[in-house]
């Protein structure tokens, strides 16, 4: 029997998560069943449960992590970098990672992207272990709405997410202090208060994306420049 590598296991888990994201975006966390997710993967139920023994609950936790971890990792990377980024680059990069969810492209560029209410079966062949699809931008919005709703409903998930939120806020405070040392942000401003302004403004842009469907990098850069003027030395 061929040796199963970690790389193979990672790819399998990623395929299952991609299918779960599509189903959750399409039907919500409550509406999507394990049968839906298993069908979307094209795998056997035993394979899916081998990777996610708790079934839907473990998939919900994994999807929640995937929607927030890119931002946490980005901010921690910036905070630990020797070269201090500009406020505009740091802010825009964090906001982009909030709604891109690790995938680039647009609806027009991704002909196989899954959209809310649209089955995604293109690219699947007999015995395939993946639908070959990923979420469209509209699907990402639907997924983020479902994520936020689930956080409001489940205290344990909300607590875990709050810890990630606190990590991001802490790293932003560190960046604020470095910007203050460079004279970019006024020293008279409390770093914790400045971090709250930056963090909440970023979350506001994510909410705007969800509510209106409109967002671009220029919006994030423009907002970052306005914050820099507001907090500037």
CA-based gyration radius? 20 Å
Counting DSSP E segments of at least 2 residues, the number of strands comes to: 0
Q: What's the helical proportion of residues?
A: 55-70%
- Under CATH at level 1, the class stands as Mainly Alpha
Beta-strand residue percentage = under 5%
Q: What is the 3D shape?
A: elongated
Q: How confident is the prediction overall: mean pLDDT? A: 80
What's the architecture, going by CATH?
Answer: Orthogonal Bundle
| Residue windows where pLDDT falls under 50 for at least 5 positions | 101-113, 115-119, 121-131
What structural category arises from helix and sheet content?
A: mainly alpha
Number of domains: 1
SSE succession = HHHHHHHHH
Number of helical segments with 4 or more residues = 9
**In whole angstroms, how far apart are the ends?**
65 Å
CATH topology: Tetracycline Repressor, domain 2
């Amino acid at each position: 029997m061929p040796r199963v590598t970690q790389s193979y296991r990672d790819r399998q888990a990623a395929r299952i998560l991609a299918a779960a994201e599509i189903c959750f975006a399409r039907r919500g966390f409550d509406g999507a069943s394990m049968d839906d997710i298993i069908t979307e993967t094209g795998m056997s139920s035993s394979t899916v449960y081998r990777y996610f023994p708790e079934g839907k609950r473990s998939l919900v936790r994994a999807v929640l992590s995937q929607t927030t971890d890119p931002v946490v990792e980005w901010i921690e990377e910036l905070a630990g970098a020797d070269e201090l980024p500009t406020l505009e680059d740091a802010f825009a990069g964090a906001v982009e990672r909030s709604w891109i969810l690790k995938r680039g492209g647009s609806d027009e560029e991704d002909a196989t992207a899954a959209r809310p209410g649209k089955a995604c079966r293109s690219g699947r062949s007999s015995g395939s272990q993946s639908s070959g699809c990923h979420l469209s931008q509209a699907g990402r919005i639907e997924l983020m709405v479902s994520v936020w709703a689930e956080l409001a409903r489940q205290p344990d998930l909300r607590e875990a997410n709050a810890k990630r939120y606190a990590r991001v806020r802490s790293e932003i405070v560190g960046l604020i202090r470095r910007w203050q040392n460079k004279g970019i942000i006024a020293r008279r401003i409390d770093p914790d208060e400045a971090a709250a302004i930056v963090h909440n403004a970023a979350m506001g842009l994510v909410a705007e994306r969800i509510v209106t469907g409109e967002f671009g990098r220029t919006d994030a850069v423009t907002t970052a420049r306005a914050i820099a003027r507001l907090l500037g030395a």
